[in-house]
Amino acid sequence: MPEATPPAAAPSRQTRSGSFATAQVQAGYVSGLAENTAVPSIHQSNGFEFGSLSEARDLFALRKDGNIYSRAANPTVLVFERRVAELEGGIGAAGVASGQAAVAVALLALAKQGEHIVAARQLYGGTVDLLQDTFADWGIEVTFVDQDDAAAWEAAVRPTTRALFAESISNPIAQVLDLGAVAAVAKRAGVPLVIDNTVASPYLQRARNFGADIVVHSATKFIGGHGTSLGGVVVDLGTFDFTADPGRWPQLTQTYPRVPDGSLVERFGDTGSPYIALVKTKYVHDLGPSLSAFNAFQLLQGLETLDLRMERHTASALAVARFLETHPAVARVHHPGLESSPWHANARAYLPDGTSSVFAFDLHATGDAEADFRLVEDVISRLRVIRLVANIGDARSLVAHPASMTHSHMSPAQLAEAYITPTTVRLSIGLEDPRDIVDDLRRALDGVTAATADEVGADRQLAETSSR
Asked: CA-CA distance, 444 to 362, in Å (whole number)?
């Protein structure tokens, strides 16, 4: 009986470039190779390869600009930062993970424990939470003032004040800030004016032109525009001189431990933004609210159509506001484009290219909070085009109830100061046909009118029966 033939040896796991394991990790890619793409590339990489240890040392010491690690800097994010800075007329920007992160790091880079911020009390509810709760935990005191009262801004300033902060257009009531008046207060106080320009976007307002020094955005909103990607950005407008009173700003003017050769002003004062360098190398680096390369790419896609979308958003919103102003179920419409708005003059001065597409209206209150909630819930339940979503600046039209949603952590006094009632309904008008949006609201509100008529008729019938 012939002997069995031994099995052939398994083929060696070798490739032209070496072993299989090495090839599956490294084959086909050369670090630093330019691909000549026509649109910004997604640099989905945590880290970056250094040419030498000497180059790495210089990059970590901030003696040289370049990519180190995507927590604080990424090539795709850098394109996004440069583009927003250009649109805002700024000298530098820092992309971060969300609008909330943008507000936090922008102010933390200015005020530390024992220092003080003056802020408008008509802020988005999440921002109020950040300033009155978390900043208080960190020993940073915040005084909230009526944004329309220039004297209140002035009176709130202290020797320890390090920033004034407000929204250019408030959320949800769409109050338009008298930016020039508040900027004048900030200038006299010798501190930067930080403006949240989310609702206006760089297209409707360049806050720099009216005296702002730093701008923040929730890029999640109009900059991205499609409700898919979180992101935020801080922009240094280059208008505040931190060296005029260097003792107030030691974090920028004194030796910075992460720059062995001197201060951030000395390192970046002539070539960039010392302030943005601090935001990135300390607060983004240490706290980690990084903007991902993929989200930066999506936000860049949104930016490419910002002007076209804002024109549609604002025109449709004004048409909707005019309709709401005529409907008997509506008690008040808060839209600065309406001649009846107390902020109409400010809108004409500060928003020449269109007013807000985020605004609110009030239904007639019953005087009972639970009944008012049911009234709003009933209206929202009849909407079919407008979606119940806690977001703004989306391509889709959205509705929210601030008192029970976005501003629910605020006290009754704070809600009243921000002109938010139990029957306040917030709208963010999207890109749908405005006729469909108006028809959707008409159907929902006509239900309120019909119900009210039925109640009146029932009351009248009961009165007539009782009188017989």
From this structure: 14
Q: Residue 7: is its pLDDT beyond 70?
A: no
Residue 31's CB is within 10 A of a number of other CB atoms, namely 10
Residues 320-376: tens digit of each pLDDT:
999 999 999 999 999 999 999 999 999 999 999 999 999 999 999 998 989 999 999
| Distance between CA atoms of residues 304 and 91, nearest Å | 20
pLDDT tens-digit readout, 212-221:
999 999 999 9
**For residue 97, what are its two tokens?**
């993970």
Residues whose CB falls within 8 Å of the CB of residue 242, separated by 6 or more in sequence, listed in order:
248, 249, 252, 253, 265, 274, 275
For residue 328, cis peptide bond before it (omega within 30 degrees of 0): no
pLDDT tens-digit readout, 273-319? 999 999 999 999 999 999 999 999 999 999 999 999 999 999 999 99
**What whole-number distance in Å separates Cα of residue 421 and Cα of residue 407?**
11
In 356-423, the DSSP E strands lie at: 358-363, 387-388, 398-400
pTM of the model: 0.90
- Residue 394 reports pLDDT greater than 70: yes
Whole-angstrom Cα Rg for the chain: 27
**Max CA pair span of the chain:** 122
Q: How far apart are the first and last CA of the chain?
A: 122
Cβ contacts of 117 within 8 Å, gap of 6 or more: 107, 110, 111, 131, 135, 140, 141, 142, 143, 161, 162, 163, 164, 165
CA distance 464 to 460: 6
- Cα gap 408→115, rounded to integer Å: 28
Task: Record the tokens describing residue 247, joined without a space.
Answer: 């003792």
Q: Residue 430 has what DSSP assignment? A: -
Residue 15: which H helix or E strand, with range? strand 14-15
Structure tokens at 391: 């977001």
Cβ contact 176:347 at 8 Å: yes
Cα 167–373–457 angle (5° rounding)? 130
Model confidence over 190-241: pLDDT tens digits?
A: 999 999 999 999 999 999 999 999 999 999 999 999 999 999 999 999 999 9
Contact 69, 46 (CB under 8 A): yes
